[in-house]
Amino acid sequence: MKEAKELGIAVVGSGRIGTLRASLAAVHPSVRFLAISDMDLSRARILADKVKAQYVSNNNLEVMSRPE
């Protein structure tokens, strides 16, 4: 059987769709790193805490540029 590739995911936005995507990524067995970004840093932190993301920011490019 083929070994699953480990993934790092950046979710931009912590609204309804971002919350859905982050929640799905958080429980996916291949996802090893999860970063959340939102212009409103407090909203990003709330979602990051909820899904146990490893990184949070209010800078979209920053989360997408993470090497993980």
In short:
The protein is an alpha/beta fold and 68 residues long.
Class derived from helix and strand content: alpha/beta
Low-confidence stretches: none
* Strand order in space, largest sheet: 1-2-3
Radius of gyration: 12 Å
* Distance between the ends: 25 Å
Tell me the strand percentage band.
Answer: 15-25%
The average pLDDT is 95
How many distinct beta strands? 3
Largest sheet: 3 strands, parallel
- SSE succession: EHEHEH
Shape: globular
- Tally of DSSP helical segments: 3
Q: Could you estimate the helical fraction of the residues in percent? A: 40-55%
Relevant terms:
68 residues, alpha/beta, three-stranded parallel β-sheet, globular
Describe the structure.
The structure is a single chain. It contains three helices and three strands. With 68 residues, it is α/β, with parallel strands linked by helices. Strands 1-2-3 form a three-stranded parallel sheet. Helix 1 packs parallel to helix 2 (41-51). It is globular and about 45 Å long. It starts with 6 loop residues before the first strand and ends with a helix. The relative contact order is 0.25.
Write the layout of secondary structure elements.
Layout: E1 7-12, H1 16-27, E2 31-37, H2 41-51, E3 55-57, H3 60-64
Parallel strand pairs: 1-2, 2-3
Helix pairs in contact: 1-2
